């Protein structure tokens, strides 16, 4: 285990995918972790068991990030279990793809509610409740830059997350809290793989200079850096972790 600067970390959307890898990594770094999930209670509980079996500390916490009251309760849970929170990783997100012409209102509203309002709910709560010297990492995407067709509404939510990141870094700097975003390229999780055939996946791999998809641990390492002592001078940045695709 390495020595952690931020002792208690809340990771949203940590039941599966990138968030689960982040929770595992932060626990190995020596942090106490709040494993947030929306619906996957069993997966979150199994991850907590796994962390504890390796000597780490974690609790599972159900909260739909689009609900501000639920996000408040998630911070309450961190305070009740561990006395407070030092880091928030705003990882929870969804991706629905469609050209602008056929993006329906429900699809648009759902991505705004979870990706943008959900991230905002976490940022606002963190701004009020993280301890001084804390860390915030939110999730954008390299589609902000790649701008492929069909990613319009999704990319718009992530561009908004980037704007919030730059501004909150300036607001929280005086308290020694850093605020960054990570913008992965394609990572092999359900969010990316679902609905894509093998030919499409192979084509996307070939677009990457390193010839593969990202793995969840590629991204967890970046978050670990941003939360740890070696990341202390990185603030107000969007870190594209994507193997060089853009
Ligand atoms: P994923 O495998 O689909 O996992 C999504 C996670 O978010 C799950 O733990 C899910 O919890 C949680 N979640 C969804 N809606 C939620 C809500 N309303 N409240 C709380 N938690 C919620 O996705 P992923 O690929 O790991 O993506 C993680 C983040 O990286 C997202 O912000 C995504 O936009 C971003 N990203 C991913 C890629 C990629 O290629 N995978 C690329 C760029 C950026 P439940 O299981 O409980 O529903």
From TrEMBL:
Listed InterPro entries: KR_dom, NAD(P)-bd_dom_sf, Sc_DH/Rdtase_CS, SDR_fam
SUPFAM superfamilies linked: NAD(P)-binding Rossmann-fold domains
Keyword entries, A-Z: Oxidoreductase
Keyword Mitochondrion attached: no
Family of this protein: Belongs to the short-chain dehydrogenases/reductases (SDR) family.
Ketoreductase domain segment(s): 7-185
Protein name (Swiss-Prot/TrEMBL): SDR family oxidoreductase
């Amino acid at each position: 285990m390495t020595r952690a600067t931020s002792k208690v970390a809340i990771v949203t959307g940590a039941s599966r995918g990138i968030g689960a890898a982040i929770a595992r990594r932060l626990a190995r770094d020596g942090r106490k972790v709040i494993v947030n999930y929306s619906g996957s209670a069993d997966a979150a509980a199994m991850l907590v068991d796994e962390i504890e079996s390796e000597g780490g500390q974690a609790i599972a916490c159900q909260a739909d990030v689009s609900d501000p009251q639920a996000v408040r309760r998630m911070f309450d849970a961190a305070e009740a279990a561990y006395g407070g929170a030092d880091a928030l990783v705003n990882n929870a997100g969804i991706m629905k793809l469609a050209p602008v012409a056929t993006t329906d209102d429900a699809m648009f509203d759902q991505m705004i509610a979870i990706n943008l309002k959900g991230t905002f709910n976490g940022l606002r709560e963190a701004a009020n409740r993280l301890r001084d010297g804390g860390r915030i990492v939110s999730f954008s995407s390299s589609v902000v830059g790649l701008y492929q067709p069909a990613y319009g509404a999704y990319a718009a939510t992530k561009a908004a997350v980037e704007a919030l990141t730059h501004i909150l870094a300036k607001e929280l700097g005086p308290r020694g809290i850093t605020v960054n975003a990570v913008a992965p390229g394609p990572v092999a999780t359900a969010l990316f793989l679902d609905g894509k055939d093998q030919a499409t996946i192979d084509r996307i791999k070939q677009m990457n200079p390193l010839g593969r998809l990202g793995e969840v641990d590629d991204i967890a390492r970046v978050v670990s850096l941003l939360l740890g002592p070696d990341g202390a001078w990185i603030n107000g940045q969007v870190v594209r972790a994507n193997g060089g695709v853009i």
